[in-house]
Amino acid sequence: MSGEDTGRRWVLGLTGGIASGKSTVGAEFARLGATVIDLDVVSRQEVEPGSPLLERIVSRFGAELRRRDGSLDRRALRSRVFADAALRRELEALTHPAIVQRTRELIAAATGPYVVVQNPLLAENKARVGYDRVLVVDCPVETQRQRLAARDGSEPREVAAMLAAQASREARLAVADDVLVNDGTLEQLRASVAALHRRYLGLAASSSTIAR
Questions:
Q1: CATH code (residue 56)
Q2: What is the dihedral of CA 7, 106, 27, 203, to 10 degrees?
Q3: Over its length of 212 residues, how does the chain's per-residue pLDDT go in tens digits?
Q4: pTM of the complete model
Q5: Has residue 4 been placed in a domain?
Q6: What is the pLDDT of residues 70-83, one digit of tens each?
Q7: Among the four residues 15, 24, 37, 71, which has the most C-beta atoms within 10 Å?
Q8: Which domain holds residue 140?
Q9: Is residue 25 part of a domain?
Q10: Distances from the Cα of 65 to the Cαs of 41, 71, 89, 199, 206, in angstroms?
């Protein structure tokens, strides 16, 4: 979400490495009343059967990526691009404009006290501009490996490729205003999110007052 007009809404960028727990954190912010926009969800919606973006992806990366029901085989596409940095950049160039435009629309329509944009590639795309603050969900790399194996049944080679394709832990932490370490219990995570939510409510309210 680099540089787009957010209609003066206070926007938090939420990111973290794969299997760090950022989706759980995003769900907690939503439960507490923030408007949460998950760019993974936006990207899936933009490639629904019949969409122009899906047709461009299939044309570029192969008809075998279209399932029998017309949907995109996202796992097959992910495996292909994670193994090739040049292909990954091509895919991002295809998908980025549509995702940015839809995100702008969702921010403009947001009704919560502030907006959380859950952006898994914030550090990779150097998209720090456009957010009032960035929260990084962090955990040890070994924890990521264990969670990926348990969650997806991914083989060690595939796990290694997914981790290598992402920004390093150090690069993610370098873009952070706030860091939430997710290596404890769900109750501890919820308490941490609740504390951040109270802080962000104050920041958003202050920003709104200044804007007026």
A1: 3.40.50.300
A2: 0
A3: 544 444 579 999 999 988 899 999 999 999 999 999 999 999 999 999 999 999 999 999 999 999 999 999 988 998 888 778 888 889 988 998 999 999 999 999 999 999 999 998 898 877 777 899 999 999 888 888 888 777 767 677 777 877 777 788 888 999 999 999 998 899 999 999 999 999 999 999 998 655 44
A4: 0.82
A5: no
A6: 999 988 998 888 77
A7: 15
A8: 11-206
A9: yes
A10: 19, 8, 18, 44, 47
- Give the number of C-alpha atoms closer than 13 A to the C-alpha of residue 145, restricted to the C-beta side: 9
Which segments of 12-140 does DSSP mark as H helices, in order?
A: 22-31, 39-46, 52-61, 74-82, 85-108
Domain count, the chain: 1
Residue 211 domain-assigned (yes or no): no
